[in-house]
Specification:
Blueprint (H helix, E strand, L loop, with lengths): L8 E6 L5 H18 L5 E6 L17 E2 L8 E5 L4 H4 L2 H12 L3 E5 L2 H7 L7 E2 L6 H7 L4 E2 L4 E4 L2 E4 L4 H14 L1 H10 L23 H12 L7 H8 L3 H12 L3 H19 L4 H7 L5 H12 L3 H7 L8
Parallel strand pairs: 1-2, 1-4, 2-3, 4-5, 5-9, 6-7
Antiparallel strand pairs: 8-9
Helix pairs in contact: 1-6, 1-7, 6-7, 9-10
Length: 323
């Protein structure tokens, strides 16, 4: 069992186009812990495979940057991902991560860095958190990993985290394990982050629309959970204990569309995520989103987005920066 209090020497493996906000939130939590404690609780290193500073998705670099081989002993290495993380998941990086894992170094990831660990086989049969926009694609590609919709996950010697401010929350958890709740709260106060009351429930990693009716909210959750094998409107209504006509009225009143149209939009948006973020063939993307016919998928996609799925993959704009 990993003693999170022992993780005091931490490396940040910054990859090309990494998310600066995710990396900075994690790093600044350590700096502030030292400041509040008036002593060195933590030390850290910014590293790359070759020591050349990696340019983040915002065009900036972090300095000083060391080669990973020169970083000295580490208790935890966090892989900092961002845009186009697949191009950064090289065999050499994977070999280095496996070697560190064999040496007993705990491994973690911020934002899309989880993909690099997954590609290296270092998350098999672990629970894992990743940015919500990447969840559909990465779940299809790595079924042996238990991806969860939580802001961060600490599972044995793997620490994975979504983007934005979630890395700060994960590091506050490590700080609390080492120095106690009071000091962790003082760190969060310095950043004007409210941690009270103590969180024990799951933290949703994906923003959800605020829906004013509980039956409507349950209907949307059912649709989101059944993308590959969509439930018909009647099937959803039966599960909710309402009539199909009642369900139609709820969707029209609050969302301005029919349940069928809303469900189709969810499936097509999932398909676009898979086309942009996964290597799945177009036909497999359609099947994963409940389209049994490639022609039907292509027609529905083109009608909704203005271009066929094959062109989406060839001509998609660069993936936006992950938080």
């Amino acid at each position: 069992m990993l003693d999170t209090a022992s993780l005091t020497r931490i490396g940040f493996l910054t990859l090309p186009n990494h998310s600066m906000i995710a990396c900075a939130n994690a790093l600044e939590a350590l700096r502030m812990a030292n400041y509040v404690a008036e002593g060195e609780l933590y030390s850290w290193r910014i590293v790359t495979p070759d020591g050349v500073p990696a340019t983040a998705s915002n065009g900036l670099t972090l300095s000083p940057t060391l080669a990973l081989a020169e970083a000295g002993p580490l208790d935890l290495l966090l892989v900092c991902g961002g845009i186009d993380v697949r191009h950064a998941a090289t065999p050499a990086v994977a070999d280095t991560l496996r070697r560190l894992g064999r040496r007993g170094v705990a491994l973690g990831a911020l934002c899309t860095g989880s993909f690099v660990l997954a590609e290296a086989g270092l998350l098999d049969f672990y629970r894992c958190a990743v940015h919500w926009e990447n969840l559909p694609a990465i779940r299809e590609e790595f079924p042996q990993i238990d991806f969860v919709e939580e802001a961060f996950v600490i599972d044995r010697d793997r620490l994975t985290c979504t983007g934005g401010i979630a890395p700060l929350e994960m590091m506050l958890t490590l700080i609390e394990a080492k120095a106690g709740r009071t000091l962790a709260d003082k760190v969060s106060e310095q950043f004007i982050v409210d941690r009270a009351p103590r969180r024990t429930e799951k933290v949703a990693a994906r923003p959800r629309p605020l829906l004013p009716d509980p039956t409507l909210a349950r209907a949307v959750r059912l649709m989101e959970a059944a993308i590959e094998q969509p439930l018909g409107v009647s099937g959803i209504a039966n599960r909710l204990g309402v009539s199909a006509r009642q369900l139609e009225r709820l969707f029209q009143r609050h969302l301005g569309v029919t349940p069928a149209a809303y469900q189709l939009r969810l499936r097509l948006e999932r398909a676009r995520e898979l086309l942009r973020l996964s290597p799945l063939p177009v036909t497999d993307v359609g099947l994963a989103c409940g389209f049994q016919s490639a022609a039907h998928f292509s027609t529905a996609y083109a009608r909704h987005f203005g271009r066929p799925p094959s062109r989406e993959r060839r001509g998609a704009a660069p993936t936006p920066a992950r938080a």
